[in-house]
Design goal:
The structure is a homohexamer. By secondary structure, the first copy, chain A, is of the alpha/beta class. Chain A contains eight helices and eleven strands. The relative contact order of chain A is 0.15. The complex binds calcium ion (12 copies).
Chain lengths: 256, 256, 256, 256, 256, 256
């Protein structure tokens, strides 16, 4: 009884894809990934990693994701946030970097506030510059999400986002191919995080101008604004707490 | 000789449910969970985890609980508190995430000051957004708490709170079914933390207004107020200690 | 050649009870527990735990003890102290939570300055709220301390303090029973830390008034005052060191 | 499907060379190394090391690299940056110090902003003073990169940079030798980091004047300037956040 | 070729005694223990413990020693020093608490500046209050140091300081007994750290007056004064560095 | 192809000596040790230790070296520096304390800026007070360095510095003895760090005057001055960064 959604859109929630190996077959399987962002100093924390339920390749992907954030947003300010990413309702060890782009999209949704289309499942690793890199098990993952969507009802807006370099590996079941050809199911093949963001949110990712600023109403623009806001609000709060006692009490009685 | 209570109400105390596997049967068993909240910087600490008496799935649940607090209360202030959760009188390793919602209710009671009804035992995991997720052993847990309450005396107000998604797993003993039908025992099936809080406290959980503020006399409202108070009082204290010596002595002679 | 004392009273020193398992019998054995409190930031440190001479159940008891202090004294100020608890002249691993109340009394004696009666040995675990919980080996512990006191000379003021819930387990040697009946030896059965404190110190534990303050001449009152004093004196010292050089020298020549 | 580039130039990206041992042969293999630099306090972090995918000799090389940076840039200011180095698309443990100079060039490109020629693959360890030291497998590495470039198309600008002390170990395939002799492929043999930097960037490394300053338009000059800028901008930001609320809001609405 | 001295006096140097077990015999053996004290925040560090060349019982003794310092000197100021204790020229693991008083005397000599008589070797453990507690191998230790002194030349001022509670274990060789009886060798049996300090330094340990101050020219008086001086000088230095640049340069040219 | 130098002089570089055990023989072998010193808070770091390529006895020697620095330079200021020591081009675990004095000389050269004579190889451990202590394998080490120098060409200024206490162990090859007798090779036997420093640098080590100051043009004088300068420059920089924005920009455009 998984809480995976395949319709509508959500902030901070995305469908990843895992592969389960059985004796003779291996099956793709959707997994719900969520993230929260709030004021604090903890940085980007993957909950499974904290409790040692991940392997080193996954963790490498996570650090690359975090370095991407640094390159993208921390040229003129430090990254000061608390963010947590979790694979909900999973109980086994998670290994491999094929969900690193997925985790990144989820986090950028929480940061920017733009919701992600829940009908799209994502696989693909990401490098330090935001390039999408190929992964394994691409056919099982597509077929697995197709089966799941078919069981829940195909909407025509559902599908899987994969790295462009994996296109040459595609050998899909006839049923899936037909669904794709008839527009009942989709395969998006991408090269960069920015392409993926635009497909998932329907909003421009945001290209920086000469001075390095992102457009306000873009994913990167809002994500950066949120990071700046968290930093500024923390600084304002710290200053307010340093004021005298009477002031403190007054502001406190109005802020819950 | 356990100190489990099945009547009245208490702040920072709740009944969880564990399953003990014997050779041919497995039995549900109540366990008293308590929490304290005080001024400090240690964050939310599960005592069993600190001494390595928990497994990774439990710890994952604990971090999800903590992320929920961040999302809920730390959008405009950092989480600055010391909170400790303990499974009293347990001496074995604790594993699984089926008590993560239970631990969260216990903590929110300590934070808000609202007491929890001791006649209700709780099972269910929670996701980063406060959704309740299904768990295992639901029948054994319900039957186990029923037996315990029957031994202590059924009041009609007792029962077990379970995840709604577990309803399809229910296959209870005839005696328990009859008790439920006749109103001597209860089963509450819920979907969110907020539903659970209202059943356990009899008080609204608290829906935020457009500006994100919770109603004052709600669980979240008071929990947030307590967090703010702890932060503000710590700041005030720090400032008072920076004043000159004579002032310091005077305030000190009146504050114990 | 143990330094265990069974007469008089001491600050920061108490008799705990361990059980030693031999092939056919198990024997209770007194152990001297001591504590020191001083200015610093290290918190409550059990020396055996630091050097990995304790097991997880003992450590759980220690964290519960520490949470009790937080609930009791850190509602309006953080716990800023350095405290160390040691089992003197023990060389084996310590496991179990049956000395957690004993360690707590010892620490509260150091904090409050009230001496503890050395003729009383204590066993019992404590929960996060200060309730005393039952432990194992109660008969061996009582008989062990009786033998030790008899060897050193019975005074009529000696005895063992046990959890009330252990009363139903009592099956003592005829000799011990007679000594208890004739007033040569005592058994105190208690339910809370406050009861234990009053027996060990002869001073009220201290009930907080509506504003949460403890009476000045009570154990909790003086413990809280000491915590406040350590915090205030550290703040004063920090300020004095920030004054100019000449002042610094002058105060320094008078303060050793 | 590796993203290794063998033409053009890139900031923060370089080709390293690994050797893969098969039963009877060993093959050189290019690997793409990338780095990001941003504001923060984390220092120089190798991502593989963080996730325990490196061996001690690699880590020793990394610390030597970091000590080189200290000697070079931190005589009059502390190193305050966040830098991350990753071996993209590698999934096995990395051991040996033969890429330590390669990692250093990559990082100095990110710091200085000067792009590196992607047609050059680099092998060689570096000591604490910036001397290049010999490594193993030099022939396999050169032949491996030659094969890769030939497959992608020889440009005449491609080749391998090796430590001068390895010249005596060269025993290359006839095809490679011919390509080198005919100018279709190159071997650069160097003794210092500065020589390597000039070959990779086409820009002077930068010799310090008597007061220890590097020329502005040199690799070291720009790297040092970037380090100073990161430190200064962080200080400016910290000060701006300490200003009053209205100011804060204004600057915030213009800075994304 | 050990550097053990058996004549004269030294600051921060003392002779400890180890027992080496051979197949049929065990021999006592002197070991030179040294300590340094300087400005810093590292606290009391035993070098062997840092490199994991000690066992848990030794470490327990070290923490008790450190707690003794807290009780003795840190009632009105925190312990802010860097102190290092080493067993010179030892290469095996050190276990047991029989040198904890020895380490304490060595450290108090460094702190107070009073030299210790090198003709005296010391064995004995210490509790949190400064009581000396019995140890094992007392005869081997005394005989071992006697042999060593005899080899180097008996002065009549040499001997071993042991815990008083070990007197009942004494069964010494005829030769040692005669030397003791004829005043050529000495055995001091003590109960407290203060007794030991006076024998080793020839100076009063120092009894605190009603306000808790130690006499200036006593071991504790000077040790406390040194701790206060280190704290005050660090504070003065910090302030001086916050002054303006020109001042800084001037003071700098005069202070080496 | 080692970069060991046996002629001239270098700052922060020295020859250590290792012994390699073969089946029937053991050979001494030179190893180049280097160090860097720069602004920072990391203290003295041995790179091999950081990557766990050293054993506990080596690490003990390193901590003793660090304690020596504390005693020598940190009586009136804390040690605030970043220093890194490395054994260049070594790939095996390093154990034993026979290079602890060698590492210390190397570091004191980096600190003082005085170059060390590269024709001298050094072996010997050091205690907390700067006394040189005997080591093992003295003959193999001397003979090994002699062979190496002979291969590179004897200059008459080359030789090995050993602990005086090792003189009684000398049993050198006839060829080495002749070279020593004829002045073609040297053996220096020393007792203290100060003796060693003067031989290696040709400069006085520096005896403190009554107020504890070292002569300006001595090794300790310049080392202490460098430590003070690093501390002062860091403080000045911190202050400069706290000035206003325009000032910051100006100073920044002149300082690379
Ligand atoms: Ca308030
Ligand atoms: Ca409020
Ligand atoms: Ca006061
Ligand atoms: Ca008071
Ligand atoms: Ca002073
Ligand atoms: Ca003084
Ligand atoms: Ca703002
Ligand atoms: Ca903005
Ligand atoms: Ca200066
Ligand atoms: Ca100076
Ligand atoms: Ca600037
Ligand atoms: Ca500049």
């Amino acid at each position: 009884i998984l809480r995976v959604e395949v319709d509508g859109e959500r902030v901070g929630q995305i469908n990843g894809l895992t592969v389960i190996d059985m004796r003779e077959h291996s099956f793709g399987h959707p997994v719900r990934i969520t993230s929260n962002v709030y004021m604090g100093q903890e940085g980007v924390v993957n909950i499974e990693r904290e409790v040692k339920l991940t392997g080193p390749i996954h963790n490498k992907g996570l650090l690359i994701l975090s370095s991407y954030l640094g390159k993208k947003y921390a040229q003129d300010m430090p990254l000061t946030l608390s963010a947590r990413i979790a694979f909900e309702q999973t109980y086994e060890e998670i290994e491999g970097d094929s969900a690193s782009s997925t985790e990144l999209y989820c986090l950028l949704s929480s940061l920017s506030g733009y919701p992600l289309k829940q009908g799209i499942a994502v696989t693909g690793s990401v490098d330090q510059f935001g390039n999408i890199q190929p992964i394994g098990g691409v056919n099982e993952k597509i077929e697995g999400f197709f089966r799941y969507c078919k069981f829940r009802g195909l909407t025509g807006k559902q599908g899987v986002m994969i790295p462009k370099q994996n296109l040459i590996h595609l050998m899909l079941d006839h049923e899936v191919l037909e669904a794709v050809e008839s527009g009942k199911f989709n395969i998006w093949a991408i090269e960069t995080v920015d392409e993926g963001l635009e497909i998932l949110t329907g909003v421009p990712a945001g290209t920086p101008d000469e001075s390095g600023k992102y457009p306000e109403d873009s994913v990167h623009g809002r994500a950066k604004a949120k990071l700046r806001l968290l930093m500024e609000e923390a600084a304002k709060l710290k200053k307010a707490l340093q004021k005298d006692e009477k002031d403190g009490k007054e502001s406190s009685s109005n802020d819950n």
